[in-house]
């Protein structure tokens, strides 16, 4: 629907500006009249060009940008600054150009009489259903400043946790990537020169040497086939993950991977307990909270569990009914939820579970990094040893035969 930018005067004669969404210019005039505004400028907003739109891909709104926005808005709301004025200030302070445009649009909508939650809901790629519902609960209860502050705290906790996980994985990924690159360079440029004399000897070579020579020849002459295979695997994998059954199989596999499966489980449990606790504290009803949590889990196995739980709760059963029968939900979580329901302190129980699993994730990440570093060195040493043995052993045998 077209958006019309306007400048107008209100009943007191003060200037006002903003934007209104309407199918036609006449409809926009009617909408302004309903708000007792007399426009002296009204023009349809020009949409961004294809080039500008493509730049958004490279200037997307990151989690850190949203965390900073949430914190600054909560501080201004606590200082009793008018909401529109706070948003206008944030437009000037925000560095991310995409988020700057979005905040400006939200400010225009709010100034035009739209609620903050409804204005944010028009940008689902930035403000998730979880975020919008928390803001809506603050508007309904009249505690928007408290909800924004709580939301900023939770966003910071989530950002810090994911930053620690990503940071811990950078070193192993860098080392493994370097090993693959060095291995390919050796196979293409170094190994052929070292094995040339072995091919000319005409003798029977050890199995390890024949495998090494075969791998080197393949990377030299049939590298294009490897590229095609990788492309087919990438495209095929994406096609499989587009289907619900494919994603469900992959998400199920994630939870049972050696070493990393337990980490993934704890990450999803942290997300479940934090999201549900935040929504309940914000005053969102339990069934609606569970619906939102199902959408932000990021794993279909847990999302399906939450959706089954919604049906149980609507029928009057306990929130832990489905969890007790699941292998991916620890018994401790189910029992704690039952206790929280019976005592009427479900939010507190969820908060304590979240603290426990957050510490568990951090400790597991630290242990994994400590374990991966020597493991990588061992793998690197074995790989070098195999290559050296595959070349040196035949040369030694050849020298002994002369």
Q: Write out the strand line-up for the largest beta sheet, numbering strands in chain order.
A: 2-1-3
Termini Cα gap: 86 Å
**Got a strand count?**
3
What is the CATH C-level name of the largest domain? Mainly Alpha
The overall pLDDT, averaged over residues, is 81
Regarding quaternary structure, what we see is single chain
Specify the biggest β-sheet: 3 strands, antiparallel
Total of helices: 16
Strand content: 5-15%
Q: What is the name of the CATH topology of the largest domain?
A: Receptor-associated Protein
List the helices and strands and how they pair.
Elements: E1 3-9, E2 15-21, H1 25-34, E3 38-44, H2 50-58, H3 63-78, H4 83-93, H5 97-111, H6 116-121, H7 129-141, H8 144-201, H9 207-221, H10 223-242, H11 244-254, H12 260-281, H13 286-296, H14 300-314, H15 331-343, H16 346-401
Antiparallel strand pairs: 1-2, 1-3
